[in-house]
Amino acid sequence: MSTVEPGTTPTDAPVVDERRARAVAEQAREAEWTRPSFAKELYLGRLRLDLIHPLPEPDPVSRATGETFLAELREFCQGIDAQRIERDERIPDEVVAGLRDVGAFGMKIPTEYGGLGLSQLYYNRALTLVGSVSPAIGALLSAHQSIGVPQPVSMFGTEEQKRAFLPRCARTDISAFLLTEPDVGSDPARLRSTATPSEDGEEYVIDGVKLWTTNGVVADLLVVMARVPESPGHRGGITAFVVEGDSPGITVEHRNRFMGLRGLENGVTRLHGVRVPAANRIGREGQGLRIALSTLNTGRLSLPALCVAAGKWSTRIAREWSRERVQWGRPIGGHEEVAKRISSIAATTYAMEAMLDLAGQLADDKSADIRIEAAIAKLWASEHAYTIADDLVQIRGGRGYETAGSLAARGERGVPAEQLLRDLRINRIFEGSSEVMHLFIAREAVDAHLSVTGDLIDPDADRSDRARALAKAGGFYAKWLPTLVVGQGQVPSAFSEFGPLAGHLRFVERAARRLARSTFYGMSRWQGRLEVKQGFLGRIVDIGAELFAMSAVAVRARYDADAHPERGDTPFELADVFCRQARLRVEALLTDLWSNTDDVDGKLSRRLMDDAYTWLEDGVLDPSVPGPLIGPAEPGPSELPDQHRRMG
Q: pTM for this structure?
């Protein structure tokens, strides 16, 4: 039995400097590249179209299974009252029960453990379908399967763990993922929650407070990240555990409410002296962050799936409304200012779907490393979907700002455009904010450079290490740099099989080489300081993301034109307009790499934080509810009633 007294574990926040925080993140990343990556090659200046063209397709069994489930899910979703979820701020129990009945909680779980065993491609399409009805339901299902218990246990769990937990998750239990803490977000090195092993090694005792626990208010099973103290026989480090949601010592202290996703069951969970069997540890001690990152390689595709739902629905509403509404003698869609927004909505939606389906099928084929592709899909889709929603509200005018309930009450169709805008805003923060995603993608994109120059720019490297790195870098760059001078993008007949899109792919090839040269120039200029040049790195990432989107949509249009001749040239039309829009963004970003206000912005920000401009705030009042900006999260027993409940 354990000799650890509940609540006695030291839980002071670790003292972590910038270098230590980077080291923790670096140790968690997957260092090896054992499979090719289309996006990684793009950042190195190489358009490896052979990796994505012809567009990979699902096998017949996966397709049949997926289509059968989508038909059943569609029929069920048609009966959901989405506005009831918005009004009640809760997904009705009968909806949850119905989702269980059709198998929606086990979409990604293999059939041998009671799930449906859907492919990633069809799992994404299922989330797109259900997310078009209610993004809150989409969040419930994706948090349960993409980052909750099923994914990490499927990937890293023992056979005993799979048999113990996966059947429950497939049919009855809801799961949640608990990593974030009140003062710990994307910097996990400062994690305070601890898991202290018992002397007999049979269990751990977890103490800590977790924030923004999506599904945590209603979860039956939890994945909890906690720090195991280093001790004899224990390597320690951040570790993942499966924890029963009704374990003694767990209290859901608060259900959080947000500007959107009103039906989201997200809360604050306190763990005090929670005893967890050692058999419930996922992987080894210290592997928790690596497990989390590996899980997110495909888990991040859930958010772009919901963004595709938003884009498809927005395309329909924009089409119907812009044809119906007449101003100054013509439908508003005929006016150029509105037409620009309609065009952007439709073209961007096509590109989003192309990017998502490509990444999903690559994940299913297991022939590629998609960590960059999935991250780009999450970053790019969440940013562009929000723009789509904003454009839809603008096109709808006053009706776009009015709630669906109010519209319906006065006799018009209750179009929830303003709700879409509110619901989508979180996607730029969920599962890595856009700023963090820029840094994550940038680190992976420059990995080939760091693997040969790391010791050259490391201030702690000794002279011999630097000498070896210099020789290694010299060999790499002697071969690589000449490849950036000329390429297929300068051959007028290149990519002719893509018809009207050939010129866009030639642009992608030229821009990829220019991007790679710019990355090299930046590394040469700033060397070890490149990591703090976040504006430069963010633009490098965004350029690559646009080039990836252009490549994906070109390949998709070629496929759609061949597979669906009844669509005529419409796939090429959508892809062409999207590529024209993306090229303008790429050219602007390339210019901004070297002509920007990054330095003066940083200086002004520091001066602002030093209270140099407090006079600017004169003349207004602060309506905020009084309280600390970051609430206390001291470990210990809860003094609040438990808000946990079961769904369905």
A: 0.95
